[in-house]
Amino acid sequence: MFSILYGFLCFCLLGCGPLASGQPDDGKRYICRAIPLSGDASCPVTLLPELNAGSQEEELRNTVMQLRETILQQKENISKQQGTINELTTKLSLCASATDDKKYDKGSWGKEKQNTMGDVPRDPNDSIDSLGKTMQGLKDRLENLEQQQTRANISGAAFPTELRNLLQRRLGELEKQLLKKVSNLEEEKTMLSNATAAYRLKTESTLNALVERISELEKGGGDFKSPEQFKLSLPQRTNYLYGRFTKTLPEMYAFTLCMWIKSSASPGIGTPFSYGVPGQANEIVLIEWGNNPIELLINDKVAQLPLEVRDGRWHHICISWTTRDGQWEAYQDGEKLGTGDSLAAWHPIKPGGVIILGQEQDVMGGRFDAGQAFVGELSQVNIWDRILKPVEVQSMANCSSYIPGNVISWLASNVEVFGRGAFKRPLEMCQERLPNA
User: Fold this and answer.
1) Buried-state track 137-176, b at ≥16 Cβ within 10 A, e below 16
2) How many Cα neighbours within 13 Å face the side chain of 285?
3) φ, ψ for residue 161 (rounded to 5)?
4) Given the DSSP bridges, would you call strands 280-288 and 295-298 parallel, antiparallel or unpaired?
5) 244 in Cβ contact with 361 (< 8 Å)
6) Are 143 and 149 in contact (CB under 8 A)?
7) Minimal CA–CA distance to 229: which of 237, 220, 238?
8) What share of the chain is helix, strand, coil (3-state, %, to 5)?
9) How far is CA 143 from CA 136, 146, 163, 410, in A?
10) Alpha-carbon distance 117 to 134, whole Å?
């Protein structure tokens, strides 16, 4: 700080003038004035009479007081700036500890790269010696403040602003890192939520399948005395309860369809049987809807059958048809109740379709209508590619024999069940299916 002065005070009594050189005292007093450091190195002396000594001493006293005030003011500034530096250093240390132990690079302030403060300790808890060195370095910087202001364009008041800007930039970086980490956590949470929902759906589906299987086993759906001794139960009128044969029909020019049926649904029992092929969903359909009688559809052509099975009791029915003149016959409980012709005459039954039990197909294998669904129970649904003789029909109707179909046979392995509530159940005895049972 003393560099801001132009020189120093010296008293000639200590090193200049006649007394210092051993000359006799002439009764006069000498005093050395302050000169610039760049001036003459000699010690010019201004001779003053004793009468003027009082004014010179007053001038010296004023100069010393000004120097003392300047030094005190500089010390006060140093103290304030040191307090600000320590406070900001503490904040920076706290911020640095919250960033996953990231270290500042060489661009940050510290000993790796000198800044306008010199050796400022990173940790506010450094030793007293280190703090003393820091203070000394700060004093040295402040002593040359005026010369450095021109070269570096900074001042004692500007440095805290620079440090504040550095802190704000660092806080901005930390905020961006925090926002990025929060965003990543939100993405991970969303992915985890989606994966959990998918897993829950899969688990629920598996559990539902197991529950249905257990229910079926508890009711004897997979443990029949013989492969044909089971029934298909469709208790509700919906568009999702049905059975489906795993096999299809070949091309046929005649057929006989027989089944045991039990229903008390009203109005109409619905659609116990439907066979759809590509381009023709109504290739073979047996349906009773509304207050209409049971109808047989062949290639979407219709014949009304004189059958009545809507009484909640088991009935054995058989329908036969031939492409020759479209002739058909209808049996109920072993008795022929009606015949007819001109039903899709000379039309062969197309192969490769889907057989559905309990639903009417609007397209092959699907698009069911709940209003046309069958409600009740079915058993021993068989199909032959010929016209059965009346005695064969009667023997099956009175339970004296069982004749499996040569095209479609009623086996538990041939029938799939769809929809919760639809079951294959054991058929205990033939008497259960008789009209007087």
Assistant:
1) ebeebbeebeeeeeeeeeebeebbeebeebeeebeeeeee
2) 29
3) -65, -40
4) antiparallel
5) no
6) no
7) 220
8) 35, 25, 40
9) 11, 8, 21, 111
10) 9
Q: Give how far Cα 161 sits from Cα of 88, 155, 164, 213, Å.
A: 11, 10, 5, 77
pTM for the model stands at: 0.51
Q: Is the pLDDT of residue 51 over 70?
A: no
Q: In this model, does residue 415 exceed pLDDT 60? A: yes
As a whole number of angstroms, the distance between CA 87 and CA 258 comes to 98
Strand order of the sheet with strand 270-277?
301-304, 295-298, 280-288, 270-277, 354-357, 242-245, 415-418
The encoded tokens of residue 169 equal 């930039």
Contact 353, 290 (CB under 8 A): no
Res. 215 pLDDT band, cuts 50 70 90: low
Cis peptide bond prior to 267, omega within 30° of 0? yes
Q: Where in the chain is the domain with CATH 2.60.120.200?
A: 230-433
- Pairwise CA distance, residues 297 & 269, whole Å: 16
The rounded distance, in Å, linking the Cα atoms of 122 and 222 is 80
Taking only the tens place, the pLDDT of each residue in 284-321 is: 999 998 888 999 999 999 999 999 999 989 999 999 99
Least confident span in 15-24, 30-39, 277-286, 394-403? 15-24
Residue 99 pLDDT > 60, yes or no? no
End-to-end CA distance of the chain: 124
Tokens of 237: 């009128």
Collapsed DSSP state (helix, strand, coil) of residue 171: helix
Q: At 301, list the tokens.
A: 């052509």
Which residue, chain included where needed, has tokens 């054995």?
316
Element (H, E) at 152: helix 145-152
Tell me the fold of 230-433. Jelly Rolls (2.60.120)
